[in-house]
Amino acid sequence: MAQSTKILTSAIRAPFWKRFGVGKTLPANIDHAYDNDFKVKFRNSTDTADIAVLGVSGNEPAILDANGNEAVKVATTASAVNEITVTNAAANGIVSISATGSDAAIDIVLAQKGAANIYLGTVNTNQLVLSGNQSLADAGQKDLISFTQTVDAVNNIEVTNAATATDPSIAAVGTDANVGLTVSSKGTGSIVANVGTTNRLIVNGEFKTIADGAPVALFEVACADMGMVGGSIMYLVRASDGVDTQALSGIATYAAVSKAGTTTAVITDVAANGAYAESAPASTLTLAFTAVDGADKATFRVQPTGSLVETVYDITYTVVPLAGAVTIL
Predict the structure, then answer these.
(1) Tens digits of per-residue pLDDT, 270-327?
(2) Beta-carbon count within 10 A of 90 CB
(3) How far apart are alpha carbons 249 and 324 in whole angstroms?
(4) 143 close to 135: Cβ distance less than 8 angstroms
(5) Residues 13-21: what's their mean pLDDT?
(6) DSSP 8-state class, residue 211
(7) Radius of gyration of the chain (CA)
(8) CA distances to 78, 109, 128 from 125, in Å
(9) H-helix segments, the chain
(10) d(C-alpha 303, C-alpha 317), whole Å
(11) Interval 193-215: pLDDT, tens
């Protein structure tokens, strides 16, 4: 079937049906088999240029450019109730492309073809703006990163990639001369810093309850056959009977080796580097660190001995492993 074309020429300020000769139905002189192959051109009043083209391409309605090539295609969904709305804007306003329709919540997809990229903005784009406290999600719609607004913010995080043999960075930047950077865990969760897959710092936020005469396991270190592991911990013990208080902080070092399935481990409190404070004269508080050998691992424990009848009695600690993966217990 030959393609049927209607050129509609505008007249200034005339109603649409007068400008284009179109009402709610197409004129009789247009091939009504347009669902197979149909095109309408809108031409300006001077009859010099086409300003828009509508047509059918492969049974899908399309907007064509002045050369008749597809610019936008409209696919058909049976019983569709949702659609895209394009809204213009007044001066200083924001134009929008929105999902609209009868459903209460409507997703919108922007997808590339094949293994191509999606580009947001241009090289001159100032910002990509989130409309609220929103997050980036994975393919399962689970949050990956959440963003929270601070009113009148002047400082922010800058993430920089890197070329060969250099390191990417996460930095605090902004208008202030000095900008700190806070990394927080939730609740009593730990903050772990790794070099490759090796733990280098584990900040444990939990205050673990302890008791006189009872060893408490603090952490364990993996040590495979012929393995050699070690590091240190920094600790603080707090004790109180509701009247007096004690605080004991210090450093302990640990090491372990393994051969033929047998692990040998040791932990030593560096007493010379410890600090002890008390509100009750002549009160005492001491610690005994012990290591328990296991299969391809070593477990390190502490047992306190104090002179108070404690109602508050706990330890918090940070592990600094030099070798060997650490698990906080």
Answers:
(1) 987 889 999 988 899 999 999 999 889 999 999 999 999 999 999 999 999 999 989 8
(2) 6
(3) 24
(4) yes
(5) 46
(6) B
(7) 36
(8) 38, 22, 8
(9) 16-20
(10) 14
(11) 888 877 778 888 788 999 999 99
SS3 144: strand
**Residue 272, phi-psi category: left (phi > 0), alpha (psi -120 to 50), beta (remainder):** alpha
Ramachandran class of 273: left when φ > 0, alpha when ψ lies in -120 to 50, beta otherwise? alpha
Cβ–Cβ under 8 Å, residues 217 and 211 = no
SS3 18: helix
Pick the closest to residue 310 from 224, 218, 235, 244 (CA basis). 244
Residue 221 has φ and ψ, to the nearest 5°, of -125, 130
Q: Which residue has the tokens 């005994």?
A: 288
CA gap 162, 165 in Å, rounded: 8
Instruction: Compute CA distances 159 → 134, 167, 171, whole Å.
Output: 19, 11, 7
Give the tokens for residue 32.
């009504």
Q: How many beta carbons lie within 10 A of that of residue 313, not counting itself? A: 21
CA distance 290 to 92: 70
- Going by the DSSP 8-state scheme, the letter that residue 32 receives in this structure is S
Residues forming beta bridges with residue 99, ordered by sequence position: 84
Alpha-carbon 123 to chain mean position:
24
